[in-house]
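Severity: low
Component: inverse-folding endpoint
Summary: output formatting inconsistent between runs
Steps to reproduce: submit the following structure tokens with default settings.
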């Protein structure tokens, strides 16, 4: 730093004395010291310097004021945010309460809807069930080896794919309604038929006791003369149903046997039901005199079934 001192003499007296620090036109030192003893003289350098310092001080002041204003604004903004947050916090319980109320209302509506649907469905099912006939298709099947000692020949085995005819016929004679009476009738039938050691010609026999007795079963063809053996399943109904109506057990068991045959794939899906009347000379004479038709009451019931096709004679 350089210093310059000068004195101007006017009448031998010292008018004023000044001392300046080194000033740079492009840089203002923050440690520059200025000492003014007499300010009568206008010094352009000092004026510029003072103006610069004034501008600098004003700028600093403005910056400080701006910072203070920014801080105040931030505080006010923070206060506003806190107020907003406080407002939101204060409204959360009320909103949560409204949501819970809405959820309960929705649950109540859903419960009422499900209850109404359940009651309607239950009522509908009860009405439908009341209109349906009380028919169950459980088959009580007694195997051949249990009730009969006669061996079935292995000839003429059935081909299940070809069995399209379910043939129903009555055996004639006494009716039975208990397993004991039905077994007695079966053994009597075997004695009268088994002169040559053959089993009865039926595939199955059904009694009024609701049981199905296996004779030749599904495995072997029927042995009835005059009846097709390659495409038929012969079912004998124990008793005489010319004047007596077959009971519900017997009719239901016929249905059960057919359903079980389908389930085991022993008959064709497109089967048909036929009635068979065995007209002997004695029966023909009785029919002419009394005008009775063999198995009239039986076939009157069978004809009502949708699978019924026709009745033929042997």
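Observed output (run 2 of 3):
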């Amino acid at each position: 730093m350089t210093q310059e001192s000068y004195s101007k003499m006017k009448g031998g007296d010292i008018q004023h004395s000044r001392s300046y620090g080194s000033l740079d036109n492009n840089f203002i030192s923050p440690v520059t010291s200025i000492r003014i003893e007499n300010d009568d003289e206008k010094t352009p350098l000092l004026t510029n310097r003072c103006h610069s310092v004034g501008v600098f001080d004003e700028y600093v002041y403005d910056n400080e004021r701006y910072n203070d204003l920014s801080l105040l604004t931030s505080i006010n903004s923070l206060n506003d945010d806190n107020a907003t947050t406080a407002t939101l916090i204060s409204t959360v319980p009320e909103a949560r309460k409204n949501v819970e109320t809405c959820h309960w209302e929705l649950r109540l509506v859903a419960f009422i809807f499900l209850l109404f649907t359940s009651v309607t469905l239950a009522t509908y099912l009860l009405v439908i069930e009341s209109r349906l006939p009380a028919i169950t298709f459980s088959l009580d099947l007694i195997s051949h080896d249990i009730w009969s000692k006669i061996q079935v020949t292995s000839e003429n085995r059935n081909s299940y794919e070809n069995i399209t005819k379910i043939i129903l016929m009555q055996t004639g004679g006494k009716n039975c309604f208990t397993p004991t009476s039905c077994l007695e009738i079966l053994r009597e039938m075997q004695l009268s038929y088994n002169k040559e050691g053959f089993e009865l010609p039926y595939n199955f026999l059904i009694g009024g006791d609701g049981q199905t007795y296996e004779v030749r079963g599904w495995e072997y063809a029927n042995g009835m003369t005059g009846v097709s053996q390659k495409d038929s399943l012969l079912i004998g109904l124990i008793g005489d149903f010319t004047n007596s109506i077959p009971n519900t057990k017997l009719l239901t068991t016929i249905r059960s046997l057919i359903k079980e045959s389908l389930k085991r794939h022993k008959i064709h899906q497109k089967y048909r039901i036929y009635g068979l009347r065995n007209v002997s000379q004695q029966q023909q004479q009785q029919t002419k005199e009394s005008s009775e038709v063999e198995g009239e009451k039986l076939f009157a019931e069978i004809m009502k079934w949708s699978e019924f096709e026709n009745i033929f004679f042997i």
